[in-house]
Amino acid sequence: MLAAIDHVQLAAPPGSEDLLRGYYVGVLGMTEIRKPPVLAARGGCWFQAGDVRLHLGIEKDFRPAKKAHPGLRVTGAEAFAARLQSHDAEVVWDDDLPGHRRFYSEDPVGNRLEFLEPLGSAEQPGS
Description:
alpha/beta; 2,3-Dihydroxybiphenyl 1,2-Dioxygenase, domain 1; four-stranded mixed beta sheet; 3 helices; 8 strands; 17% helix
């Protein structure tokens, strides 16, 4: 039976690890997780913030995900968006999900990321 999502994997182009570290650690505030040696040989990076884990795997013929994306729950959506903008990341607000404040942005290799915060204290179904 399914219990939780362990991680979400996104693709990245060869040689982009330092760029990814700068963004996921320096901008999003995540921590890099050391990959097991056999997997580290493949390249890429793993990151974590609390229970949120993102793996960035190297893909030879990389194309950024423009529709598929992780939905990352945040606190203080306005301040988080301002943080991204202060690092020259584009922020696109979307008011189409009732009960949420949400925006989209892209990581430095072009993968789409959704950031959302439920409005009020109750958890919103399907978020």
